[in-house]
Amino acid sequence: MKQYVVDEIRAADHEKIKKYLDAEFGPAEMGSIYWIPVAEEMFSEEQNAHKTCQPFFFALDLESERLSCELLIRTRDRIRCDCISYATESQRNWLISVVDAVFEKLEIHT
């Protein structure tokens, strides 16, 4: 699995991130998984065409000392579909900027 990972997160910073993610995206599911919605303007042509599969998400896993984001864009309605795929370069860059913005807003330096 391709991922974007931020590790060596301090305990106090973990709590700040968790509170922020809970407030912005709802409580974690399956322990520590958050579903980050992909902005519609970031959808690929295939994803735009699959209206019944929308919305699309990145899965973000917040563990005690690390945050990891799968670079697989998913729908919560289906397990397999042609619209479920690894992020394009622009989608990957968008996700990284979303994560970086959270760290900047919370004044966490990595």
What does this structure look like?
The chain has 110 residues and is of the alpha+beta class. It has one domain (3-105). Helices cover 34% and strands 25% of the residues. The chain is built from three helices and six strands, in the order E-H-E-H-E-E-E-E-H. Strands 1, 2, 3, 4, 5 and 6 form a six-stranded antiparallel beta sheet that branches. The longest helix has 17 residues, at 89-105. The radius of gyration is 14 Å and the shape is elongated. The model has no long low-confidence stretch (mean pLDDT 93).
- The number of helices is 3
Give the topology string: H per helix, E per strand: EHEHEEEEH
The total tally of domains equals 1
Q: What is the tally of beta strands?
A: 6
Distance between the termini: 23 Å
Helix content: 25-40%
Main beta-sheet strand count, sense and barrel state: 6 strands, antiparallel
Rg estimate, integer Å: 14 Å
Hey, roughly how much beta strand do the residues contain?
25-35%
Shape: elongated
Q: Strand pairing plus helix content: what structural class?
A: alpha+beta
- Ranges with pLDDT <50 over ≥5 residues? none
- Overall pLDDT, averaged? 93
